[in-house]
Amino acid sequence: MKRAYKFLLRPTVRQEQALRSMLKDHCTLYNAALQERRDAYRHPSKTSITYGQQSAQLKEIRSLDSDQGRWSFSSQQATLRRLNKAFAAFFRRVKNGERPGYPRFKGTGHFDTVEFPKDGDGCRWNSTPHDGQVRVRLQGVGHVRVHQHRPVKGRVKTISVKREGRRWYVILACDDVPADPLPATRSVIGIDMGTVHFFTDSNGNHAANPCFLERCAAELTVAQRHLDTFPKHTKQRSKRHRAAARKVTELHAKIRRRRLDHHHKQALELVRQHDVIAHEKLNTVGLTKRSVPQPDPEHEGAYLPNGAAAKAGRNRNIMDAAWGLFLGILANKAESAGRRVIPVDARNTSRTCPECGHVAKENRTTQATFECVSCGFAANADHVGARNVLHRAGLVLCGAP
After folding, report:
1. Model confidence, pTM
2. Is pLDDT at 360 greater than 80 in this prediction?
């Protein structure tokens, strides 16, 4: 299996300055390579610049620029490959008729990751504690202390350094990670994701939705309004402006860490208790699309009510719950534990009666109430959805079409 391990770095003051310089110089390299591609295409000859051509220039760039010369050659190649992937994705979207999204220049505050493609080439992960501390060696930075909270399994393939606000992290991408199977429980369960409850299982148990964004909404609103009082386009940010922006960033990071911790704990509990876990195959991108404006045929320039405000609130709740993130974590933990996760078709799971099989929109009277118009069966709508998910997973296990 392939797994990634993320650990907090504890750099010294000088090492943190070196890490900032490393990000800044890689950002400069990325922007210069992007500018070269733009200029070549704007030339009357419409010349295309490839990754191979730009990578071949690195040796000369490093000899002329001492700042670029002190960093790892392979990490700079990885930065150029990152730009090449951005252009490949741009041309793919153009070909498919999607919104293109031309690659953009990166500001120093929006370039936060440097990748080292191979352990031992410009970086070295040393899991053997020295003076009670685990360290990672980075070219141009030194041996940086690592807060390793769990053992690393498998073979370390790539190492990345990432900045999140004021924190620094090292991310280890490992291959050949062995599985750690859990003992069988002979339990099969279905779950129905929601916003009122985070999920409801087929046994009728509800997992509470912590609503992390909603709980921090008041504090986040104050911080964002304070940030909006400063001019948006200034060459030199003031100290107070930087502090206001940092406050907003830290609040979002706090929400993200809480959400991630909650999802890991919920997924781990499911994996420990059940051998097979079924869930709906959700298209969160489609579920969170904005409502399409509907012109009023009787009044020119006017639009009919389309419930955009209510849809925006529901979209916000869905993105706060982060179903896709949770299901991805659940799948990874299940694979490591030797469990099975079965995604099933989500259509009409909350409109199908689990007793008689009747499907009708009228069965779902309210958000929380299900009452079959055919047989009169009544229950919690989320519980009904979870039971239907479990039933469809049983058909998959039995090999039914």
Report:
1. 0.87
2. yes
Cα-based torsion angle of the residue sequence 234, 236, 241, 243 in order, rounded to the nearest 10 degrees: 150
Cα separation of 80 and 82, whole Å? 5
Q: Where are the alpha helices (DSSP H) in 43-72?
A: 51-56, 58-64, 66-69
Same domain, 106 and 43: yes
Q: Which residues pair with 170 in a beta bridge?
A: 7, 161
Domain of 389, CATH number, reads 3.30.420
What is the residue range of 304's domain?
188-398
Q: What is the pLDDT of residues 317-346, one digit of tens each?
A: 999 999 999 999 999 999 999 999 999 998
Residue 269 sits at φ, ψ, to 5 deg, of: -65, -40
Q: Which residue type sits at 187? A: S
DSSP string across 315-350: HHHHHHHTHHHHHHHHHHHHHHHT-EEEEE--TTTT
Residues 66 and 145 in one domain: yes
In a domain, 181, yes or no: no
Number of structural domains (the chain) is: 2
Nearest partner of 170 among 191, 143, 188, 192, judged by Cα: 143
> Is the per-residue pLDDT at 236 higher than 80?
no
Rounded Cα distance, 97 and 104, in Å: 20
In a domain, 49, yes or no: yes
